[in-house]
Automatic annotation (TrEMBL):
Pathway involvement of the protein, from the record: Amino-acid biosynthesis; L-methionine biosynthesis via salvage pathway; S-methyl-5-thio-alpha-D-ribose 1-phosphate from S-methyl-5'-thioadenosine (phosphorylase route): step 1/1
Residue numbers marked as site, Important for substrate specificity: S172, V227
Nucleoside phosphorylase domain boundaries: 11-247
Subunit structure of this chain's protein: Homohexamer. Dimer of a homotrimer.
Source superkingdom: Bacteria
Gene: mtnP
Catalytic activity as recorded in UniProt: S-methyl-5'-thioadenosine + phosphate = 5-(methylsulfanyl)-alpha-D-ribose 1-phosphate + adenine
EC number: 2.4.2.28
Family annotation (SUPFAM superfamilies): Purine and uridine phosphorylases
Transmembrane segments annotated in the record for this chain: none
Organism: Novosphingobium album
Protein name from the UniProt record: S-methyl-5'-thioadenosine phosphorylase
Tagged with keyword Nuclease: no
Function, in words: Catalyzes the reversible phosphorylation of S-methyl-5'-thioadenosine (MTA) to adenine and 5-methylthioribose-1-phosphate. Involved in the breakdown of MTA, a major by-product of polyamine biosynthesis. Responsible for the first step in the methionine salvage pathway after MTA has been generated from S-adenosylmethionine. Has broad substrate specificity with 6-aminopurine nucleosides as preferred substrates.
Root EC class: transferase
């Protein structure tokens, strides 16, 4: 594991609902990577596109067997970091809480409200306490490039949007859906949290291209969401999602300039050095390699 990031882009892609089959990569190789945080969702597939390295991971595993609350978000981010990924993009399905964000359209999400309750949401804890800034949870540079790529791929993209992450697996009640609207949320999903938090702790810039698949259930005249509706939209748009990744590969500058997020842990630790638990630090050999170096 290199302590400093490569000056070449290496994009980690987390594919959500409808994208378990992966993205088109040249010289694709499937690799099972293990993590001290447990089982990731599956093996990663690494390869190249237009000279850029991409590593893909299906969030819900092969055949979509892992529900949102049981995804091991820590292991997924850890293995991507272990593979040398420099930045992470998520391709996710969401419900819309706004009339003007219609099914089939994309949203370059830039904020989150986290309503998840039962997920391991930090790499740190007893023995090593750390607090990273999450004011701007999405990397603006990556998100802008991702949104531009989605447009070039033929997608209609909204710049910015607030994603409310619910625990699921059930969809929301109408009262909840309207409450989230009143809070200023624009789209709703079940997976971006704690994924975005963990990417930040792992010093990985994170961006999410959310694909609107339904209007959730806030519209009086409409029935609630059904998975079949979600999948119908997803299948119709999976080609655009894949073309977006190809367009991104074609548009990345040759060299990757460092991002401030590459040093997100710089001022995060509060536990006194002599009080830090070596066993906890040992597990962070990938996530916090830059800070603690390689562990034996
Ligand atoms: C299949 S509908 C609900 C499911 O879809 C979204 O998953 P992902 O973000 O991985 O595309 C949503 O968050 C739910 O997990
Ligand atoms: N309405 C919705 N609520 C939560 N997650 C979703 N994923 C796709 N549509 C959704």
């Amino acid at each position: 594991m290199r302590a400093e990031k490569s000056s070449f882009w290496h994009i980690g892609v987390i594919g959500g609902s409808g994208l378990a089959a992966g993205i088109d990569l040249e010289d694709a190789q499937e690799i099972a990577v293990s993590s001290p945080f447990g089982e990731p969702s599956g093996p990663v597939v690494t390869g190249r596109l237009g000279g850029v390295r991409f590593t893909f991971l299906a969030r819900h595993g092969a055949g979509h067997c892992i529900p949102p609350a049981q995804v091991n978000y820590r292991a997924n981010i850890d293995v991507l970091k272990r593979c040398g990924v420099t930045d992470v993009i998520s391709l996710s399905a969401v419900g819309s809480l706004r009339e003007d964000m219609a099914p089939g359209q994309f949203v370059a999400v830039d904020q989150f409200i986290d309503r998840t309750t039962a997920r391991a949401n930090s790499f740190f804890g007893p023995g090593l306490v750390a607090h990273v800034s999450l004011a701007d949870p999405v990397c603006a540079r990556l998100s802008t490039m991702l949104a531009g790529s989605a447009r070039r791929a033929g997608g209609e993209v909204h710049n910015g949007g607030c994603y409310v992450a619910i625990e699921g697996p059930q969809f929301s009640t109408r009262a909840e859906s309207r409450m989230y609207q009143s809070w200023g949320a624009d789209v709703i999903g079940m997976t971006a949290m704690p994924e975005a938090r963990l990417a930040r702790e792992a010093e990985l810039p994170y961006a999410i291209l959310a694909m609107v698949t339904d209007y959730d259930c806030w519209r009086e005249e409409e029935a609630g969401v059904e998975v079949t509706d979600v999948l119908a939209v997803l299948h119709a748009n999976a080609r655009t999602a894949r073309a977006t990744v190809a367009a991104l590969a074609g548009s990345l500058p040759q060299m990757r300039e460092p991002s401030p997020i590459d040093k997100a842990l710089e001022h995060a630790f509060i536990t006194a050095p002599e009080a830090r638990d070596p066993a906890v630090i040992a597990r962070l050999d990938a996530v916090a390699c830059r800070v603690f170096g390689e562990q034996d």
